[in-house]
Structures are given as structure tokens and as C-alpha cells.
Amino acid sequence: MELNRQFSFDSFLVGPNNRLAVTAARTVAEAPGSAYNPLFIYSATGLGKTHLLMAVGLLAKDLNPDLNVEYLTLEEFVEAFHAAVAAGQSEAFRKRFSEAGLLLIDDVQFLTHRREMQSELLRLIKELQASNRQIVLASDRPPAEIQNLDERLIAGFAGGLIVDIGKPEFETRLAILRRRAQERCVSFEPGVLEALAEAEVANVRELIGLLNRLIALQAVSDSPLGTEDVRELLGDRVRAAEPAAAVRDEFSQFVSHISAAVSQTVEAWRKRLGEAILRWEAEGYKTARLEALLAEEAPLGADQAIERFERDVARLKEIESEVTALDRLAAGNAVFRDPDRLEEAEELLKKIREGLVPLPQPAPLWTFAEYLAGECNKVALGAARAVCEAPGERYNPLVLVGPAGVGKTHLMHAIGNALLTLPGCEIGCLSAQEFVDDLVEATEQNRVEAWRMRFRRVRALLMDDVHLLAGKDRSQEELFHLFNLLAGSGAQLVFTINRPPAEVPGLDDRLVSRLEGGLVASLGAPDRELKAALARRHLKGPGSKIDDDLVDYLASRPADSVRAVLGMIQRVNSAAEARGVEPTAALAREVLEGEIARMRATRPVPASGILASPTSAVRSREKFVWYWPDVAGRAIEESF
Amino acid sequence: MSLVNFTTREITCKIVYYGPGRSGKTTNLQYIYERVPEDRKGRMVSLATQTDRTLFFDFLPLELGSISGFKTRFQLYTVPGQVYYNATRKLVLQGADGVVFVADSQARQLDENIESMRNLHANLLEQGVDVRTLPIVLQYNKQDLPRELILAPSELDEALNFREWPSFSAEALSGKGVFETLKAISELVLKKLSGEGSR
Description:
heterodimer, A: alpha/beta, Rossmann fold, Helicase, Ruva Protein, domain 3, 5 domains, five-stranded parallel β-sheet, 24 helices, 10 strands, 51% helix, elongated, B: alpha/beta, eight-stranded mixed β-sheet, 5 helices, 27% strand, globular
């Protein structure tokens, strides 16, 4: 059926009786499929359902000329369906309606007892909803009062918005009469239309009928009609017509005149409320709170409600922007669009902030400046510097492999400290054991999500001793997801591990493959050069003068870790201090070898004759000569 | 003065009939009072002297019933017109939402009209009310008197209405123009109210 251009929103008079319906209809017309779907309008006959339905179609079409708008009554819908079935074209029928961008169906009350049409309509509504197409229905009674209506349909209607149009009250009736009279270019004596508006009518159509009779009467009478003529015309329709009407007349007129002004005054809030609803809905916010107010008879702080609503929306915006900055994954959460869920939003922000307990940071003492280079750590150190120059770009992840005490942790912290100097680079630097402990604690306190948030926002994650995760499936899984997320967002990852990942039993294959996907750099036992450098740095000599023989001696001592070298130096330093002399090679020999001699005296000598170094319980490296710059002085027998 | 009380859902408007003595202010109120239906009639309070002049003021409460959910009440006051009652006039004028200035159209009363108008301005000024924003209408009463005795509305406009307020001819005794004046001032007051309502 064609839409009648006369039935537009402009020609629809809005009063308290129909304001909600009009607001809802307008919203639907402006953004079909996005607000109330389906929209169900009901009212007694002659109060403007069809007008409103057509107005929706017209406005939607005006705003979007390409929109496919279908308007029809239920009878037409049924006929079309029957015709389609008869012609074997039921698919074409379904296609026609399911492709409508806006489907307007009038007189839905005729669904009574039509089971097959009900299921057809139910199917259609679901299909339209699924594809975000709008459906608007009108009926002369609410869905629940339509006899034998499928429960699922009732539920379907209730899922959208059901609004009613009430009978127009005096002011609206008067406004309708004035507008109609104006349209017909007829003018009446003052008070005539007011008197007519007082008539007891069931609907607007009847009111217009009375006006038409009045216009006809005036056309044939010699003098303009007065209020008495109206009363005659209305007969017993006039409300509370009293004998003293003439006396009261002036006062009643005054009251009705004032009524219009008063309602305009106090109804101004409705207008503001309606505007606020339209505005915020357009921005995607839920306005249920304001809509509930709109349905109320008189405002109780409507302006305050709007203010509060706007304040809440502003707060939601703040929360959303903070949350988004903290956790990209939480952006777009539905709670940020519903001021009624402000508390939830605050809660979410709080949780995310809780997750913001700063992650452990690298120890400030462990820097590159403190890190001594040697042949044994050259590759790893080079990679570490490269990582600091371009975090996340070159070696990602960087896995530092080596036994205990070779300087992995120091190097990792040095990377961390260097990254900290980059602007805006948040990092987390912790041991795998801390990672596991934290996770256990978070699980206990039921805040794993917040715990995850803490890690998700870093730009660099440095984790020590990953081999400690072996056999801890849950921690590995968390690390696996975190790894993917961080690597995907270009964050730098650095790990240390005591042996090549693939050789760690109990480490998940997917984690192993990821660790090996970057650069695995080994750190070996300290070489002579490194040991000499350590000795020079840590020996306590007079001023800067260090005994070269002592350095040489210490550098030639076997040690399988930096820690062991530092231990030797420490002992020499302590001995020198205790005796009040300078540390010398002779003293060192006495201290270190004497110790071994004492050990020999107290322990049975191993049958192989191989002596373990004091720091290595298992193997002796003294069988091997790795580095031999001065052949004469360096023989393995020297410790005997 | 709070006009619209959203909490108690009440609207109260105070309208003061101002003007020189014997210009017909009380007659205006009496006419209105007679037209109020019995069930809505409040008590008109009139404090008059022995010679029937208003001594303090007349007070007519008008209950208009519930409009859009608001209990609407108009309070109509008159002031004593005689020059020497200025203290009472100030008192009555306090908190007025609108003023009807009732002028005596008789040519020989022109000076009294002008004097009363000046007095209105002075009293409003004293109370810190901006006369440009306060709703005011003029009523030229006694237009039923013989032509030669009275001034035409246009002449009175020229003498009194330099602010171009709405003005109405009236014959308060017969009621002509009484309700028109009341409607006009009510409308202005409510309009101002809705302007304030929307901040």
C-alpha cells in the first residue's frame, strides 16, 4: 500500500497522551533496526496508529531514499501470503518481506486464530531482527489481549518496545481542532472551538467529524456560530453541562486558556527529555532511565534527571577512555554505553586499576655499565644491545641460555634498565617463580583477570629462569597466551633459561617452539679475559694499582661461573684485609690453594686423582686447558 | 518566589493589580470572583475602610484545579491606590510574578495615573525588581464613560505605556476586558516561567 504523504510527523499533533509513542516512532524512523525492534504501537481506534505508522515510513524514506519500505495491513499481508501459496510462490513472498528495510504492518489484532500467519510472522520478525531490519506493528489492543496469539509472538513483541496512544486530553483536542480549522481556512468566534473540545468523544476521528458538522453549519448560517450553537450540536455530549454555564463561561474559558499555557510550561520538560533521549540514543547510549521518566504523568526533577544522566555519560566516557588506555581488550564493553550500569563500569575500572600494581622492575644496579664482556658472552651481549636499540623488532624473544651464575640475570636486568630509559616503555621484569606465585595468589583471590591485565599492557616482559615453569601447566598456558598477545602487539620479550628450551623436560612444546622462534643466545663459563676483567674490577688494591700477577693468577684459576670468580676474589680481599696487607698473587695462592690442601686433608682423595674445584661439585674442568696464553706457567698439575 | 514546585507539583502565581485610587482594581477582582464556580470559590479577603476604600489589600485566591498534574493556583492582589498607603503597596508588591496596572481613563485622573505609574517603578526599583523583565499589562478602565470625559486608549498609551506593554480597554463594572486582562497577564507570567524552567 502506498504511504499517504498527509500522514507525516509534521501533521501529527503531539500531546501527553501520545508523546512516548511519537518519540519511539521517530527514533525508529531515524535509525531503523537499531533502537526498538520490533516497535509495537497500540491504541483504541481513531487515535492515530495508522498515521504514526505511515509517518515512520515517510520519514525513514525521506532520510534514506534507498530504503525499502513496505506498508500493509495484516489483511493484505494474509492475502499476499495466500496468493503466494496458491501460486506456489511462497519463497518469493518470504523474500519480498525479509528484504524490506522497514516493514510496517497495521491492524495486527487480526492475527487472532490465524496460527499459520502467526508462525509466518514470527519467522519473519526473527529474520528481520537478525539482519537489523526494522519492523513496526500497530494494533488496537496490546499483544497480550489479542486472542489466541502465540506466546512466542507475544514474547517477540515484548522484546522490542510496546507503546500505547491514549485519548487526547482537552488541550490536545483543542489543538487538533484549531489546526484542522486552520487547514480548512475556517475561523470561528472565540470560545467555539473550546466548547467543541469539551465534547466527550471516543477518538480523534469523531472529533474531526464534529468539527466538519460545525463547519457545514457555519457555512449555511447567516451569523457566525456561538458557543450555544456548539452546545446544541453536541447535545448531551458536552461534559458537565450545567445550567449556570453562561455565568461560568468566562471563567472556564480563562481556565482552559491557562491550562494550555500551564501545560506548555510544565510540559517543556517532556520536550527537553525527548530531545535528550534522541541525542544520547544517537550516540549509542542506553536511555531507559529517561524513557521511564517520559512515561510518567508529571515530572519530578526531570531536569535534574537529565543532568544526572549527562553527568553519568560524561563519567562513562572518562572511564572508557581510561580503561581503553589500560587494556585495549576491554574497549567497547557494553557497560560503557549504559549509564544505569555506571557502577559496573566503575567496578571494571577498579579491577583493571588493581591489576596495575606495578610489575617488578629490574634491579637498578644491574646495568650494561656493570656488565663485563668476554668471549663467552659476546653474542648474548651483542643481542642484548640490539634489543635495546630496537625493542620488539630484531630479536623477539631473546632467550639467554646458560648455567647458573654466568650472568644471564644481570644481562636481562641490564636490558630492562636500558628499556626503562625509553619514553613510555612500561616493563615487567620478574622471575618465573614470581610469575607462578602471583598467579596462584590471583587465583586464590579470584582476580586472575586483573592479574592478566597487569601483564597485558607492558611493552617489554623479561622473565628469569623460565625452566622453573617446567611441569606447571597452568602457568605455562598463561605465559603462552601472554606471549602471543605481547609478541603480536610488538612488545619485547626476554627470557633466561638454564639450558636450551628443547632440553628442559616438562616445558610445553608450543612454548618451546615460541622461545626458539627468536634468538637463543648462550652464555658460557667465564673465560680468561672475563675473569681478568672481573679481578681488575673487584680486587681491592691501593688506588687503581692492581697487582698484574694476581690478576693473571686469578684469571688462570678454574671457575665455571662468574659467581665462582667473584667468590675467589672475595676470599682474597678478605684475607688481605684481615692481615692488613695488599692482595698479592702469593697471598691468593695461599688462600685458595691452602684451602684445597685443607680439603685434601679432610676428604678422601678421589680415586681418579681429579680434583674438583671448590665451586663445582661434579666435574672438574682442570683436566682441560681452554685458554693458554702463557704455556710455561699453566699446567694442570699446578694445584697439586 | 518559587512559581513551579515540582516536588509538591504546584504552580502558584501572584498577580498584583496596581493603579491609582478608585481606578477599579477591586472591581476587577470582584467581577472575577463572581464568575468563579461555587466549588472552586475561595474566600475573597477585602480589608476596606468605612468609606469602602481598600485599606490594606484585596486577596483573591483562584484554584484552577489540576493542570497537567499540577495543582494550579493564582493569587490576585490589589493594592490600596491612595498615595499615603505606600508602605502597604510595597508589602503587597513583594514577590509579585506579574502586575496589572489599572489606569483610570478619565482625563482628569491622568496625573494620578502617571503618579501611580511612577510609584510602581520606584517601588519595584527599591525591591530590586527589573521592571523590564517583570510581566506587566495595562488596563484602561472606565472606557464606558462619555467620550468627552475620558482619554482614548491611544492617548493613554502615549502617556503611560512608553515600555509598550500589552494594554486593554475595559469596563470593569460590566466585566468587559476583565478576563482579557487576566488572561494576558497569566500568559506572560507563565511564559516567563517556562523560560526560567528551561534554564
